[in-house]
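Retinol dehydrogenase structure dump, as promised
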Amino acid sequence: MLQLAYGILTQGPPAWVPDALRDPWRNMTVIAVMVVLLLLKRYFNGFLNPAERDMHGRVVMITGGTSGIGAAVAKDLARRGAQLVLLTRLPPSNPFLADYIGQLRQETRNTMIYAEQVDLTSLHSIRQFATRWIDNAPPRRLDMLILCADTLTPPGQKRVKTEEGIEETWMVNYLANFHLLGILSPALRAQPFDRDVRVIIPTCSSYIGAPPLSEELDKKKWNPSKAYARSKLAMLVFGQAYQKHLDAYKRPDGLPMTSRVIFVDPGLCRTPGMRRWLSRGSIWGLVCYVAFYAVPWFFLKSAEMGAQSILYAVLDTSLVRGPGGQLIKECQMVDFARMDIKDEAIAKKLWEASDKLIVQTEKEQAALRNLEKKAEEAREKDKKDAAQAEEIDELVQTIKKGKEAEKKSTSRRKNKK
Ligand SMILES: NC(=O)c1ccc[n+]([C@@H]2O[C@H](COP(=O)([O-])OP(=O)(O)OC[C@H]3O[C@@H](n4cnc5c(N)ncnc54)[C@H](OP(=O)(O)O)[C@@H]3O)[C@@H](O)[C@H]2O)c1
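structure tokens r here:
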């Protein structure tokens, strides 16, 4: 190899090199461009997580652990031996989910991976799961809660409401987490002092351009980007307030609370959610995405690289010493780009409004479920009554037939006589 390089330098390229590759300036330019592209790709890929920590025996609850960044985080933590509880909208009996978990267990040689059905578009589903979780005595071990699930309506598509009547982006990206963390709060606070409990909230720099939370995002002003950015801003404001809520808890043992809320900006990544957004949720968009895949491949991170900052937030042991409510980007602490995130008055208003919306929606839904139950009971009763009437009718017919047969046989006997 060295001989070849020396030969090229002293005598020029060998005879077999085509003429097109003999121009040294052109070759230098090509090499320089390639080096620049390589460096840019490295830059866009972001930083690798440098932290290490033993995860064996730690219980990690994760939403959105079935795709994108969440799936990459789940896989890494499973490899490290953590016990994973995946909150998924599909029931564990679903064949696709069962396959996914089976494969994850096999690939990571970790059998401690479970799924629990929690549909984040439904307050009722969240309540059912979370109350079951906290109903355990003694309290179950819970080391970490990673909230990776989210939804992003592709541009140009319509505003969608959940079955419970709440705008979907607000519900999945913010209110579901508010509800889940609210109910699981006793479970987090009941963990022993030395457990280093972390609530990890992935966020997105789109929050910087979000309209202020004091402004209602009504149907007229709504668009997918605003709705997404606003839900991310709300999560940041609520996360700060939740940290204060945890800090304010007086532990029975008198020791300080060590639970931390940590925000993470994973950077732009090639995930199913991002693909849906870039392709505007259409077949043609998807065709374009595949045809020009080199562009997202170059500028966006893989889900695995996006997971690095979240893994840093999970694994870095020094984070337990600092205050909660910090933002991590590219595996290092950064400042928030908005002042209103730490505004207590805004947080209070948001908390109260969210509580009110949940109480009102849950009441309405409970009344609806009651009505449905009653209607179902009435339908069942009608069915039973109809079956009973049919049975009586059949009995009457049989008796009638019996009597007629008896009459005929007595009249035949009389005729014979
Ligand atoms: N991708 C990026 O470029 C980027 C940039 C900045 C921040 N982030 C943040 O990183 C996190 C992960 O993003 P991602 O792009 O990896 O997401 P993604 O690929 O779109 O995956 C979203 C996950 O959320 C789950 N989910 C959606 N609706 C649900 C529901 N109703 N109930 C239960 N689960 C539900 C999905 O479950 P199914 O598998 O069942 O669909 C899926 O596992 C998000 O918080 C996002 O805001 C991402």
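The chain has a mean pLDDT of 93.
lmk if u need the other ones
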